[in-house]
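Retry 2 of 3 after timeout on previous attempt. Resubmitting structure tokens to design endpoint.
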């Protein structure tokens, strides 16, 4: 028995333990480390390179990022400004806003490397550099958080143990298509970035994403012509509203193609291609089936080319170079089978399979962060990019805080009279809702009798049915879900997003809004897992008991009293069967004598002697606006001497407490 205990102790001593292990010190890994450090958790970040952000040290090859860095928005609200800052990570340190590092709208990648280095050093994040984790496996243990520990081994055979594993390694393994002659293809990761190396050459590019067009843009002015081939048609980000599709900064080849300046785009399955090299070093494109039962090394003269049968075959001209620009995929090689880390299906097979809460489908306690987690919202939202996954990483941290440390999801309780204002405030400034549209939502949990509500920010809607378990918050009597959405049929590669009358301006037609706009779902009960699975196609949520669209706005400013606020308030009132208006003290006084039930504002404000001190200027404004009747003091002061009249009026104005709503909404305080 003693020998067994000694062996167990020795075994444990060979593993360095941490509660949380984070793989990768890229943007997602550093963002996770920040939240763990702020919460005082035991964690370590493993980075294979000597510095953070090693991906950006090489990519993009031509060094210009396509994430915008908007310096000016006309507003000083820091949360709002993050809507247009796609590079900053979240932190309390105002020095670590990316606008302090670059003034370029599309910054240089080297600036991102410097920014990430400062983020790690200034915040003193615990990153262990030059540590490449080469193997990850499980150790079953009933005492562990998830019923097992994660065992990690690095390149020096050092061993580590952790209770929860956060994978933030991104997608960095190049996608390669193997076909006859693929050995003649140059990869995006190694091809020359000096345009002079391509002077007078004819180039074929395999791929149709931003890396392909970035490469073409760099050599567009020096080549004979460039052809680009891919199995899918070009998808423009302004049509799909997906930032990962082709951005305008790189689409010069579309001009030269459509304006007939020799360059061109083709569609075809790359696996059906074959490349044959002639004696002069030229590369000829043929089809795989032409090479069946033939020896490709026997020479081009013995091989049938498509132009031998179809003399106007599109790619009949030989090429000097063929470049592969097919993007990247996740590295599954370091994970033991016991973790069951499986690739997704279909067009998300480059990402690992994960649940909507970013946890691996195969292993509890293993979470995927950053670009590698993009399968949750692929081609829908911004979860594969810094301006998206900085928020999903925070959401995962909040889920872990509740699961392992009993810290409920952060929330704030307000009286029901603040419901409309709370929603309007969030939809006008929240950056997480704005960037992760259709994925993250604000949740409003109604208290009993709808006298108050609890507000939770930026919760993953994919696990709405699990809200009570995931957040530690109860849903006693219904909820609202606030989310941002584009119009149902507005986005797509084949959509004309510039057609006449594309925008909706009238509140009664808000449900037809095309551009990004707030949508409020109301549920009398928390949706179930079954209801989540049966939700309509392309809907982020099941059918609600009631739904309200706030009409789209050209300025993305949803504060118009009649077009935005009034319809929202009436929707909320209908759902709650209550009056959410704010009233002056005179009105509450009148209601107390004429109604059996006072409106919430009067019960929670006037009756409790709460409100703003009145003034004659405010009263005069209310009278002129028709919000109050002009009951002059002479009506009940009679023949009081003028000087006594003035003193009494002044005294009343000092003593009177008039409950008022914010001035910007004053015009709506009295409506039918």
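Retry 2 succeeded. Sequence:
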């Amino acid at each position: 028995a003693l020998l067994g205990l000694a062996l167990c102790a020795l075994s444990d001593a060979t593993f360095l333990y941490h509660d949380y292990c984070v793989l990768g010190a890229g943007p997602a890994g550093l963002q996770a480390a920040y939240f763990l450090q702020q919460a005082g958790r035991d964690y370590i970040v493993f980075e294979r390179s000597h510095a953070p952000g090693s991906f950006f040290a090489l990519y993009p090859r031509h060094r210009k990022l396509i994430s915008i860095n908007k310096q000016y928005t006309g507003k000083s609200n820091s949360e709002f400004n993050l809507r247009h800052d796609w590079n900053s990570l979240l932190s309390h340190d105002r020095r670590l806003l990316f606008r302090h590092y670059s003034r370029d709208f599309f910054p240089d990648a080297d600036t991102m490397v410097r920014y990430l280095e400062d983020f790690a050093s200034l915040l003193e994040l615990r990153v262990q550099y030059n540590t490449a984790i080469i193997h990850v496996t499980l150790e079953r243990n009933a005492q562990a958080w998830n019923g097992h520990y994660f065992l990690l081994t690095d390149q020096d055979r050092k061993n580590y143990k952790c209770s929860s594993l956060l994978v933030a390694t991104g997608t960095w393994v190049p996608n390669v298509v193997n076909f006859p002659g693929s050995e003649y293809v140059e990869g995006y990761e190694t091809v020359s970035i000096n345009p002079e190396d391509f002077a007078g050459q004819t180039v074929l590019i395999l791929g149709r994403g931003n890396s392909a067009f970035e490469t073409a843009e760099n050599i567009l002015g020096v080549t004979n012509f460039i052809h680009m081939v891919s199995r899918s048609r070009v998808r423009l980000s302004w049509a799909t509203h997906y930032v990962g599709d082709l951005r305008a900064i790189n689409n010069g080849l579309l001009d030269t193609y459509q304006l007939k300046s020799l360059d061109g785009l083709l569609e075809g399955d790359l696996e059906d291609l074959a490349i044959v090299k002639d004696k002069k070093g030229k590369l000829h494109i043929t089809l795989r089936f032409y090479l069946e039962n033939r020896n490709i090394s026997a020479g081009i003269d013995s091989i049938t080319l498509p132009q031998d049968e179809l003399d106007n075959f599109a790619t009949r001209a030989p090429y000097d170079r063929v470049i592969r620009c097919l993007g990247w995929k996740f590295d599954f090689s370091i994970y033991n089978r016991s973790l069951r880390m499986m690739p997704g299906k279909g067009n998300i097979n480059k990402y690992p399979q994960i649940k909507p809460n970013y946890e691996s489908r195969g292993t509890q306690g293993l979470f995927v962060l950053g670009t590698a987690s993009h399968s949750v919202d692929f081609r829908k939202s911004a979860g594969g990019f810094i301006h998206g996954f900085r928020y999903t990483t925070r959401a995962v941290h909040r889920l872990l805080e509740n699961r392992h440390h009993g810290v409920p999801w952060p929330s704030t309780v307000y009286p029901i009279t603040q419901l409309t204002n709370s929603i309007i405030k969030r939809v006008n400034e929240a950056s997480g809702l704005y960037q992760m549209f259709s994925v993250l939502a604000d949740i409003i949990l109604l208290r009993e009798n709808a006298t108050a509500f609890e507000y939770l920010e930026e919760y993953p809607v994919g696990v709405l049915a699990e809200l009570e378990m995931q957040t530690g918050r109860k849903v006693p009597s219904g909820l609202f879900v606030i989310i941002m959405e584009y119009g149902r049929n507005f986005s797509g590669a084949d959509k004309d997003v510039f057609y006449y009358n594309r925008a909706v301006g009238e509140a009664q037609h808000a449900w037809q809004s095309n551009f990004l706009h707030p949508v409020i779902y109301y549920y009398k009960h928390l949706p179930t897992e079954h209801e989540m699975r049966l939700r309509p196609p392309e809907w982020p949520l099941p059918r609600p008991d009631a739904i309200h669209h706030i009409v789209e706005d050209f300025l993305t400013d949803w504060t118009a009293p009649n077009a935005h606020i009034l319809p929202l308030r009436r929707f909320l009132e209908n759902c709650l069967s209550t009056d959410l208006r704010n009233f002056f003290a005179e009105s509450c006084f009148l209601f107390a004598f004429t109604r059996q039930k006072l409106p919430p504002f009067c019960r929670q404000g006037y009756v409790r002697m709460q409100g703003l001190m009145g003034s004659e200027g405010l009263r005069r404004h209310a009278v002129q606006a028709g919000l109050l009747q002009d009951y002059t003091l002479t009506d009940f002061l009679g023949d009081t001497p003028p000087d006594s009249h003035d003193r009494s009026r002044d005294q009343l104005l000092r003593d009177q407490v008039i409950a008022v709503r914010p001035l910007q909404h004053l015009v709506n305080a009295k409506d039918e």
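Attempt log closed. The chain has a mean pLDDT of 88.
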